[in-house]
C-alpha cells in the first residue's frame, strides 16, 4: 500500500525507523504536561491524560485536513499518467496518518498506567471512532483536495485556520477553565467533537449526545458535498494540475 510505503521511505536508513514518531510525540506531551499542568494549577492525574489524548487526537485530525489540501497536487504524476479513482489518493494519506497515530498512541500507555486511567467497554469505541474519522477524512478531504487543486492559495489559508482552531479547541486547556457564558466555544466546535471520538474512549468515557449529534450532522453534510463535488469536478482535476 502507498500509505505504508510513504512511512518506509520517510524513515529508511534510520536506526529506529518510524519510532522517531513516538519519541517526538513523547517529548512533546511529557514536557507540556508538566509545564501547563503547573501553569494552570491542575492536578496532573487529571491534566496529563486529558492533554495526551488531546494532542494525539489533534495530530491525527489536523494532519488529515492539512495534507488533504495538497493531496491531488502531490499525486500529480499518478493522476496525469494513469486513470485512477481520485479517492485513492485521499485513502493513501488516511492510511499513512493512521499508521502515525498507532505510533503516537503508544505514548499514552505509560500515562494511563501511572495515573490509573479507566479501561472499560467504552475503550472499545476507539475503533469505531477512527472509522468515523477516516470516513469524514475521505469525504471532506476529497472536497479540500479539489478546491486546493483549483486554487493554489487554499492550502495556505487552511494552514492559517488550523493554527487558530488549535487554540479554540480544548487540547491544552480544559473546558472547565472557561466561564459558563463561553461554553458554546466547546459545544459547537466540530473539531472538538471529532477529537472526542479519540479522547473519550482512551479515557474510558462514553460520547455525549451533543457530540453524537454534531458528528452525525457533519458526516451527512460531508456525504452530500462529496457526492456533488466529485460528481461535477472529478474530470476537471487533471486539467487543473
Task: Please supply descriptive tags for the structure shown above.
globular; mainly alpha; 241 residues
Can you walk me through this structure?
This protein has one domain. By secondary structure, it is mostly helical. It is built from 13 helices and no strands. The mean pLDDT is 88. It is globular, with a radius of gyration of 19 Å.
Domain count: the total is 1
Shape category: globular
Report the span from N to C terminus: 24 Å
Average of per-residue pLDDT values: 88
How does the helix and strand content classify structurally? Answer: mainly alpha
Largest sheet: none
Could you give the order of the helices and strands? HHHHHHHHHHHHH
Number of strands: 0
Amino acid at each position: 500500500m502507498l500509505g505504508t510505503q510513504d512511512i518506509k521511505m520517510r524513515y529508511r536508513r534510520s536506526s529506529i525507523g518510524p519510532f522517531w514518531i513516538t519519541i517526538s510525540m513523547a517529548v512533546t506531551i511529557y514536557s507540556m504536561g508538566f509545564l501547563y499542568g503547573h501553569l494552570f494549577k491542575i492536578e496532573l492525574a487529571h491534566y496529563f491524560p486529558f492533554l495526551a489524548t488531546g494532542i494525539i487526537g489533534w495530530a491525527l485530525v489536523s494532519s488529515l485536513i492539512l495534507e488533504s489540501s495538497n493531496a491531488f497536487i502531490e499525486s500529480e504524476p499518478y493522476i496525469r499518467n494513469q486513470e485512477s479513482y481520485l479517492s485513492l489518493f485521499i485513502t493513501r494519506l488516511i492510511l499513512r496518518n493512521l499508521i502515525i497515530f498507532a505510533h503516537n498512541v503508544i505514548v499514552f500507555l505509560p500515562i494511563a498506567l501511572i495515573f490509573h486511567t479507566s479501561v472499560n467497554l467504552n475503550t472499545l469505541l476507539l475503533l469505531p471512532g477512527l472509522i468515523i474519522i477516516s470516513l469524514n477524512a475521505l469525504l471532506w478531504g476529497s472536497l479540500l483536495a479539489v478546491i486546493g487543486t483549483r486554487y493554489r492559495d487554499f492550502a495556505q489559508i487552511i494552514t492559517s485556520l488550523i493554527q487558530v482552531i488549535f487554540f479554540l479547541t480544548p487540547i491544552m486547556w480544559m473546558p472547565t477553565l472557561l466561564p459558563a457564558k463561553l461554553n458554546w466555544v466547546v459545544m459547537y466546535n466540530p473539531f472538538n467533537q471529532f477529537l472526542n471520538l479519540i479522547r473519550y474512549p482512551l479515557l474510558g468515557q462514553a460520547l455525549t449526545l451533543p457530540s453524537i449529534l454534531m458528528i452525525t450532522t457533519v458526516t451527512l453534510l460531508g456525504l452530500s458535498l462529496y457526492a456533488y463535488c466529485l460528481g461535477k469536478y472529478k474530470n476537471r482535476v487533471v486539467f487543473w494540475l
